[in-house]
Amino acid sequence: MGVRETRLTNDLRQVSELIANSGGSLRLISKTGNPPYEYIIEYRCKGIEQVNGNNPVYRNTHQVKIKLGTNYPREKPDAEFLTPIFHPNVFADRDVCLGEYWTPGETVTELILRIGKIIQYSKDVLNLDSPANSTAKTWASNNMSRFPVDTQTFKVNIGWTDISWTDV
């Protein structure tokens, strides 16, 4: 098995674990290839579908197609929203602007989590300096107090107080 196939196999394992531990906030709609080189992921969190005047129209489910090209992991994946979204870092054709700083060490699970933060307008990933959508950038710049629109982590946190002796 080559480097790419090994990486794709490891990515599948990690994506499966992330989804299994997401508490239902992530769902694998489909995967293509063996090992998979394309995923369609459903996110269950609040994001903005469009803006009506100055008021956001929210959407609670989002689907994203992630494609791992033939030069992955040396080259960054492509990510495209299949559902409507209004965001400064998403182009009009719904391609996600992932920036120029892809490193082969970044995993698909990290990308899935980063896209989830993009959906929610998390301030740590919101890039207004190099927008893909200038209309969304202008609106976001004037509405920073509204962000993030959700705080879903896509991970289930189990604390010691959540475990009972019947669970053991």
Can you give me a brief rundown of this structure?
With about 170 residues, this protein is α+β, with helices and mostly antiparallel strands. Helix content is about 25%, strand content about 25%. β1 (about 25-35) and β2 form a beta hairpin.
Word description of this protein:
The chain has three helices and four strands, in the order H-E-E-E-E-H-H. The protein has 168 residues and is α+β, with helices and mostly antiparallel strands. The chain has one domain (3-167): Ubiquitin Conjugating Enzyme (Roll).
Keywords:
globular, 3 helices, 23% helix, Ubiquitin Conjugating Enzyme, 168 residues, 25% strand, alpha+beta, four-stranded antiparallel β-sheet
Walk me through the topology:
Elements: H1 3-20, E1 26-33, E2 36-52, E3 55-67, E4 78-81, H2 108-119, H3 134-141
Antiparallel strand pairs: 1-2, 2-3, 3-4
Query: Could you tell me the number of beta strands?
Result: 4
Number of domains: 1
Helical proportion?
Answer: 10-25%
Strand content: 25-35%
Which segments are poorly predicted (pLDDT under 50) over 5 or more consecutive residues?
Answer: 158-164
Counted by DSSP, the helix tally is 3
- Going by CATH, the architecture would be Roll
What sort of overall outline do the alpha carbons produce when their principal axes are compared? globular
What is the CATH first-level class name? Alpha Beta
The CATH topology is given as: Ubiquitin Conjugating Enzyme
Could you state the oligomeric state of the chains shown?
single chain
Rounded Rg? 17 Å
CATH superfamily: Ubiquitin Conjugating Enzyme
Largest sheet: 4 strands, antiparallel
Biggest sheet, spatial arrangement of strands: 1-2-3-4
Distance between the termini: 39 Å
Helices and strands, in order, run as HEEEEHH
InterPro entries: UBC, UBQ-conjugating_enzyme/RWD
Pfam family, one: UQ_con
Organism: Microcystis aeruginosa Ma_MB_F_20061100_S20D
Domain UBC core: 55-147
